[in-house]
Amino acid sequence: MANSPSGDAVLDRVMRLFAALEEQPSQTPGDLVAAARLPRTTGYRLIRELRTRGLLALTDGGEIVVGRRVWEIAQHAPIHRELRTAALPYMQDVNAVVRQTTQLSVLADDGALIVERLSRHGAVANPAEVATTMPAHLTSMGHVLLAFAPQRTAERWWAEHGDRAEAARPELRRELAEARRRGHGLLVGVINTETAGLSVPVLDPRGRALAALTVVVPRDSPEIPQFLMALQTAARGISRAMPQPTVPLNETPVVRSPQSPAD
Amino acid sequence: MANSPSGDAVLDRVMRLFAALEEQPSQTPGDLVAAARLPRTTGYRLIRELRTRGLLALTDGGEIVVGRRVWEIAQHAPIHRELRTAALPYMQDVNAVVRQTTQLSVLADDGALIVERLSRHGAVANPAEVATTMPAHLTSMGHVLLAFAPQRTAERWWAEHGDRAEAARPELRRELAEARRRGHGLLVGVINTETAGLSVPVLDPRGRALAALTVVVPRDSPEIPQFLMALQTAARGISRAMPQPTVPLNETPVVRSPQSPAD
């Protein structure tokens, strides 16, 4: 690093502070510095610098939280600006018709990342559940995301997760082939014994999944065929509403963020 | 800066890259480096480091965009996690009843910052309009945000913006006193000659505005009294749904981010 010997170190420390806030979104400065495994002086100074820039904020109760500036910048991320914005009206339509939890997700490094979730009555569910990931091999959304993934993405997923996933779900390859053939995924009682997950892909013009649209319904619901049609209709609307050309919403970072030890 | 002489510089450069992406959310690396006024080598290296951490991403078309990791972190910001999550179901109710653009905003450094906006038919409007700010002295949301602001926030706003605002809107103090007395703000034909803005505050338990809830309606609508009751009802629901104790959603950064020159 020619000009900025500590640039890497600063960014890694910043990422560790934010990762600690993802675990526990409101912490005293002391707890946060400890959770991020930063030296005390370094940690306090970095928190102050991030507050100055609005990336962190201090609550009335003296705890550090993620700052509004991060939220402002995030509005411009394609996952929000393109996918969620295109999808939300159609998700509201599905939610109004199906009256069960409706979810939008994308394939991320370690599973299916929930982008938006509407609960039964139109309320947004526990926000802790948005931006979390579910296991791809155990969810209907994961199945359609894998079944309709771009080839390179699917290959990378199988190389990284295939062995462990097939050990846990031996029928996975057959299920993905079925999801591909039928155009939807249906998993009954896997994550929750009382419910079924029903998912369809949101496809780009080349037939690759940009996202999965899912409803979680009672496992013995006789209306699953109707729900499927509602999902398929909405997924086509979302595809049409997405700006072109598409951005790689399923793209993983160039390199995984290092799990750097405390310095 | 004892341990990290270039920490400030790195963070300032990062902020300049993100600020440039707020102006133009998808740019070639070369254009982005130029827009952020960074030296070419420094800029390319920083973009690479930010991509490694998922804070930036590269589109299929070779352009740099805000990365998904920023979006994930932003889900934990109080403005999203607490305010928007509490408000969205009630905004949907207002939108269903009033059938006009429904907005949620907070008082920010330079105006009323739009947190969420639902359009007439339940669709989310142009995302460029979320996370932008409107002039506080010329909008009904700005009026209720100022009229019900915590005293320290109001004093700071008047010190910074008062002279310019009163020059542009000589009746401002009277309007704010009226908004305070009536519990709502109504501005007709100011931003758009054809429309009226009608806003109520979302109050914390001490009667201070956490946010403003607004509908934009045709200027001569005979239904404004009914719309006001819908807004007041929804605002009470949002107040009740907000987690306690409240965080300083109206807080500005400790120090304004410096407009640092190119290095």
TrEMBL record, chains A, B:
Taxonomically, which superkingdom?
Bacteria
**Any one Gene Ontology biological process term?**
negative regulation of DNA-templated transcription
State the SMART domains in the record. HTH_ICLR
Task: Cite the SUPFAM superfamilies for this sequence.
Answer: GAF domain-like (SSF55781), Winged helix' DNA-binding domain (SSF46785)
Tell me if DNA-binding is a UniProt keyword of this record: yes
Molecular functions per Gene Ontology: DNA binding; DNA-binding transcription factor activity
Domain (IclR-ED) spans 69-244
Q: Where is this region: Disordered?
A: 243-263
- What InterPro entries does this protein's entry cite? GAF-like_dom_sf, HTH_MetabolicPath_Reg, Tscrpt_reg_IclR_C, Tscrpt_reg_IclR_N, WH-like_DNA-bd_sf, WH_DNA-bd_sf
The UniProt keyword set, sorted, is: DNA-binding, Transcription, Transcription regulation
Record protein name field:
DNA-binding IclR family transcriptional regulator
